[in-house]
């Protein structure tokens, strides 16, 4: 007899991560925020680009639609959905709005994507709605099974750090309040929740005044302006229970990803400043702890501002089967793949250089390298030299294609890679060996944002219309994965 009510599923997304991986369609469209190179000083607005990634299409690798924002100076950054796979049990809900926070403007756009190829504006959360709650600098947007959207915030509106979460009604875009009950975290950035273990964990970048103008060491190594901790919350009580200090090796823990299987209490977080990956696990007493799992060694160099050039882990993701972890190494310029079938013994299985600061022919000369025998060649794809460095990552549902974009944050892009700003961003595709591990550049794929109609732009995070492995959170379905 068929099961009654919403417990049958039929809502947005997929029942389980493996369901998405095995039965999800091949991606045909990417949504990509495109930021003006001048950042908040730009007179032209940022826009949402719709990119054709269907190899059977006559417009393959082209931007087929551009949706300019109503205002300039937003610094579109990350995005999320009005609903996702956490709402799979509710057939009355539909994933039809992309949520776009303005990292600098404090404005949040709800973009209607019911026509996937031609998004249009629908609702806006104005900056005043956020500022009157004493928060600013919105970053990660995740949908909740309650029909709300939850967005992490980093500041207090005056440039100081403040880790909080804004709740927004997904149907009306009305701000309903703040999530945390009781003490708030000192800093904020990314977050992921796991109701099965009654936990949410949030990471930290720092106080907005410490990073909005670029990378400044006086702020980076100051505990009052840069974070180095993870904040652990009770999901049901909405309370901060524990703060895990990662130490100096964990300065600026940015993107945080749990394993997708909701019954596995394991997460990984990439720490930017010293290029380390920490693994976060749950103890038997219900508390959580973190330990370094991957360490990218520095390179001794000449021609750099310092005698050593650290890596910088700026994005990570995990395949839907929880087998592979990927991360971008923004200063060195490589993308790495690790087999984490055993999460306690990560194994490097793939590495591809897509630019960065240590390629041959640049001002930096590597004089000692613990990993490579020689400096990598600067890559060229379809005749286009890849200026800048790999940054944001998005993996196809089946795990076979890894898309890589090249913009981080406009003040930092201008500081570290001025040629990238001059020539515009790129998106390239890495073909993934899902059986044995390994990656290689697909030389037939390139999206060149240096050739946009109104000039070069900086392309950041990527989304598919049907959801992906960094926007969807799964609740426990009762099935064994």
Automatic annotation (TrEMBL):
InterPro entries: Se-bd. Keywords: Selenium. It comes from the Eukaryota. GO terms for molecular function: selenium binding. Belongs to the selenium-binding protein family. This is Methanethiol oxidase. It comes from Thrips palmi (Melon thrips). The lineage of its organism: Eukaryota, Metazoa, Ecdysozoa, Arthropoda, Hexapoda. The gene is LOC117644890.
């Amino acid at each position: 007899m068929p099961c009654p009510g919403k417990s049958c599923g039929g809502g947005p997304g997929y029942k389980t991560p493996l369901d998405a991986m095995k039965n999800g369609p091949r991606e045909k469209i990417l949504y990509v925020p495109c930021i003006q190179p001048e950042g908040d000083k730009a007179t032209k607005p940022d826009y949402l680009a719709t990119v054709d990634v269907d190899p059977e299409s006559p417009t393959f690798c082209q931007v087929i639609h551009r949706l300019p924002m109503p205002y300039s100076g937003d610094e579109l950054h990350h995005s999320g959905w009005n609903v996702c796979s956490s709402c799979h049990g509710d057939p009355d809900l539909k994933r039809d709005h992309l949520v776009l926070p303005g990292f600098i403007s404090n404005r949040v756009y709800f973009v209607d994507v019911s026509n996937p190829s031609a998004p249009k504006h629908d609702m806006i959360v104005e900056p005043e709605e956020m500022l009157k709650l004493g928060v600013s600098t919105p970053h990660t947007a995740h949908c909740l099974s309650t029909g709300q959207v939850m967005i992490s915030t980093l500041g207090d509106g005056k440039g100081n750090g403040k880790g909080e979460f804004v709740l927004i009604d997904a149907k009306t875009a009305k701000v309903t309040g703040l999530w945390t009950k009781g003490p708030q975290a000192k800093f904020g950035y990314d977050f992921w929740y796991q109701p099965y273990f009654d936990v949410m964990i949030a990471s930290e970048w720092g106080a907005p005044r410490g990073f909005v103008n670029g990378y400044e060491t006086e702020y980076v190594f100051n505990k009052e302006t840069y974070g180095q901790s993870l904040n652990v919350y009770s999901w049901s009580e909405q309370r901060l229970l524990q703060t895990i200090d990662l130490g100096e090796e964990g300065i600026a823990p940015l993107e945080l990803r749990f394993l997708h299987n909701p019954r596995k209490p394991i997460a990984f977080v990439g720490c930017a400043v010293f290029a380390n990956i920490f693994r976060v696990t749950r103890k038997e007493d219900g508390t959580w702890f973190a330990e370094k799992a991957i360490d990218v060694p520095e390179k001794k160099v000449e021609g750099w501002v310092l005698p050593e050039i650290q890596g910088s882990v700026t994005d990570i993701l995990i395949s839907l089967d929880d087998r592979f972890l990927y991360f971008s190494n923004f200063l060195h310029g490589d993308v790495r793949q690790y087999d984490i079938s055993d999460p306690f013994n990560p194994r490097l299985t793939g590495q591809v250089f897509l630019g960065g600061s240590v390629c041959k022919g640049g001002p930096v000369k590597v004089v000692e390298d613990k990993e490579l025998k020689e400096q990598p060649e600067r890559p060229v794809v379809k005749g286009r030299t890849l200026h800048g460095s790999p940054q944001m990552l998005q993996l196809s549902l089946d795990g076979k294609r890894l898309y890589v974009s090249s913009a981080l944050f406009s003040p930092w892009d201008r500081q570290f890679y001025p040629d990238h700003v001059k020539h515009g961003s790129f998106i390239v595709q890495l073909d993934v060996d899902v059986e044995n591990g390994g990656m290689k550049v697909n030389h037939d794929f390139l999206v060149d944002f240096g050739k946009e109609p109104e000039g070069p732009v900086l392309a950041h995070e990527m989304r598919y219309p049907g959801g992906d492995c960094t926007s969807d959170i799964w609740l426990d379905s009762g099935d064994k994965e």
